[in-house]
Every structure is written in C-alpha cells, then in structure tokens.
Amino acid sequence: MFPHPGNEVEAIPRQAKSPAIVQSVARGFDLLEAVASADEIGLVELAHRTGLQPSTTHRLLATLIACGYVVQNPQTSRYRLSHKVVELAGGQEHRMQRLRTAVRPHLLMIRDATDETTNLCVLDRFTIVYVDQAESSRTVRMFTERGRRAPAHACAAGKAMLAFQSSDVLADLRDRAPFPSLTPHTITDAGELEVELRRAHSRGYAIDREEYEDGVLCIAAPVFGSNGEVLAAASVSGPAARMLRQDLSELGELVRGRMLDVSRELGYEPTTDTGTPAGGAGASPATASA
Question: Which residues are in coiled coils (predicted)?
C-alpha cells in the first residue's frame, strides 16, 4: 500500500496579515487552543505558549471564562476548557456524521467502479482533512488515515473546494504565495493556481497530477449544501501509471456526477450546466482552457 506522506505540511502560515482580521479575536482563539493543549495550565505558561503579555493573557482568559469556554480551578488557579467547548465539538461531529452517511454509498460506488481508493475530505481554511475512506481491493493501493491533513493547494480535493470559495478567501490565498512545494509538480505560483482553480470550477472537478505525492494521481469533485456552499469533496486516487490508463475526463465526470447526486440529497439545487454554483474562482474575468 502507498500511505500518503508522513510529514503533514500546512498549506501556508496560519495567520497571514489581512485588514479583515480582528487581532483580539485571533489572540483569543490562539489562547483557547493553548488551554486545550493540557488538562490544566497556568497563566505564565499560557503567556509563553501564545507569545502574549501576561496582562493581555489574563484579560483574554477573563473574557473566555465569562463566555463559558474556560474555567479556572479555584484551588490551583490553573485553567482548563469547559464542557461548552465539548458541546460545540459534539454538534460539529453530529453534522460530520450526517455528511459521511450521505456520501458513503457514493464513495463505495466510485470505488467499486474503479477499484481505486476513494476519500471524503473537508476544508479547514487552506488545509484539507480526511474524514472517510473506501479502500481499493488492489494489493498496491492508496491509504490515508482519517484525520490526516494536507495542504489544499497541492491536492485534488483541496483544489476542488478552493475553486468555489469566496473572492475574499481566494484573495487571502493569493497573498500567501509562493506555496510550499511537496513534489516537483506542486503548483507554488499564485497565478498558476488561479488558472488551475478556474479550470476546476469550469468542469466541476479537479485533478492532482503527482502534486502532493510522487507517483500518485487523484481526481476530486465538491459536495454542495442547500445554500450552494462547499461542504466537502470526494476523491479517487491511485498510482499515476495505473490511473493514466483510464480516461481521466470520464473518471472526473463519474466523481462529479456522484457528488452532484449527494448535493441534491442535501438540498442543493443546481443553477449551471455543470451543476456547480456560479461564484468562486469561476467569477474571474480570465478564462482557462480545459
């Protein structure tokens, strides 16, 4: 089997400079993540981990406590997450399970039609997260653990979802170029990635030609919610030499069609010939050839 690379690479630095970012909110989330990193943690250590002044850390902690997301142990004065955070995570997990349940039969259908591994992924800003998989029966096949992350610019599922993001998100993405290179085929230039995303938007699916891992080819298409927002993407991947023996256009249409069926089940109503929303990368005045 071919596992995906063990060294997970974030697509770009987590916090790029942007006039839309509210610094105090960003600091609050950094602090919340630092609190989550331990069972209980003290003020000085939190300040050290976040790079904040102790006085700033204390004020942010007081706000998080008032909002119910952090509690302070009255005996040790140390901090920990509250059950409110667990409740929020539980709601997200419930929604994720509903998504997996809806997509799973289609993952199996694509896997059975191709005998290649299929995956379900979601987008976390500019990183994808693998949340489900249907393995191929072949001896040489792809395998990726649930929960593994990968930079969105370097893989088909990521590009399929990025292609339908808002203009603000795409502008933020462009500002983070050049993007990390994982193989000689990874797209690192912002202009080249824009062309690739317009192409993915136009045809309704994206292709990763050994951009994330040498010798691996992947095709992915997005899943849309009732409001036309991108919820996830499903992909089919295998050794490049074997995948290239198939008609990639037909394979792309297979994945796109199945994910459009899922989208309809979730309340999405197509408004274009390809069944995809009109916004995102396709809103650019430039055009790209398929």
Answer: none
Contacts of 160 (CB under 8 A, 6+ apart): 200, 205, 206, 220, 221, 222, 233, 235
Domains, the chain: 23-81 (1.10.10.10), 88-283 (3.30.450.40)
Closest among 105, 41, 36, 25 to 76, alpha carbons compared: 41
Highest mean pLDDT pick, 20-29, 103-112, 142-151: 103-112
Instruction: For 108-127, write each residue's pLDDT tens digit.
Output: 999 999 999 999 999 999 99
Burial of 36 (0-12, 13-18, 19+ CB in 10 A): middle
Confidence (pTM): 0.70
Cβ atoms of residues 74 and 63 within 8 Å: no
Q: For residues 19, 20, 22 and 25, what is the CA-based torsion angle, rounded to 10 degrees?
A: -140
What distances in angstroms separate CA 41 from CA 25, 48, 88, 226, 251, one per listed residue? 21, 11, 21, 42, 51
Q: For 257, how many CA atoms within 13 A lie in the half-sphere containing its CB?
A: 8
Which amino acid type is present at position 101?
Answer: T
Q: Which range is most confident: 84-98, 115-129, 268-282?
A: 115-129
280 Rama class: left (phi>0) / alpha (psi -120 to 50) / beta: left
Q: 147 Cβ partners below 8 Å, 6+ apart? A: 129, 130, 131
